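Memo subject: From amino acid sequence to discrete backbone structure tokens
Keywords: amino acid chain, backbone geometry, structure tokens, three-dimensional fold.
Body of memo: The sequence and its backbone structure tokens, given next.
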Amino acid sequence: MEVQFVADYFGLGSPPISDRGGRTTFEWLAGEFFLIQRFTVDNPAAPSGIAIIGPAEAAETLSQHYYDSRGVARSYQMSLNDGVWQLWREAPGFWQRYTGVFSDDGRTIKGAWEGSADGSQWKHDFELNYIKVD
């Protein structure tokens, strides 16, 4: 993983961060109905965690249940269409969305998270890219 945070993201006076200090793996749960995403991050300011991806009630979407080392648990809707990975959640006062675009060779996903208080005005949160390593 590669992440980029702007200056002051982690508090007033914190420097900008560009870091490749993380790893994400994907593996099927036995039966291959659910996909497990595990992520570890070297930077102590960012969380490590796990997500379970599977079918959602809406036929054209998936759901992702997210849990991290801060004790945060969230549910997202998710789609994978035409080389674009999207995650989103609509929670009162804290809407989020991620859009990542797969490279033509499928080795990278370049994306960013955004946040909104009400779902109408969105603000860039941070960049999160995935780079496949062999």
